Amino acid sequence: MLSSALRSVRPAASAASRRFASVAHAQTAASEAEAATKVPDFRTFAIYRYNPETDKRPYMQKFELDVSTCGPMILDALIAIKDRQDPSLVFRRSCREGICGSCAMNVDGKNCLACLTPIKRGDRENEAMRLMP
């Protein structure tokens, strides 16, 4: 009796899992197609760097990043630069919601939170964003 009840439940569960897998596959294919059609939007980020063990003095290092491949905030760009270009880049972050203040930095001469400050868009393509974590 119990084995027949289990057999009747199993096909329904596998049908549900097949339905979920097909929806997940369709969403992945749609997001990949959307990413392929995005126009690249390169921005320059000039980041203040200093390692007391190897550097004599602080310096500005420039990074080019296609911001259409990351989130809209400066913190997203910093994470993308760290992941894709320079794993030695170090900065503080925690909540990503503007609550803790851990990602506070100076951006273009103004103090802000990197998780709440959007990346500059528009016609300022040749001007580098100056980040001083």
TrEMBL record:
An example GO CC term for this entry is: mitochondrial inner membrane
> Per the database record, which ranges form the 2Fe-2S ferredoxin-type domain?
48-133
The molecular function GO annotations come to: 2 iron, 2 sulfur cluster binding; electron transfer activity; succinate dehydrogenase (quinone) activity
Q: How does it sit in the membrane?
A: Peripheral membrane protein
Signal sequence segment: none
Q: Where in the cell is it found?
A: Mitochondrion inner membrane
Name this polypeptide is given: Succinate dehydrogenase [ubiquinone] iron-sulfur protein
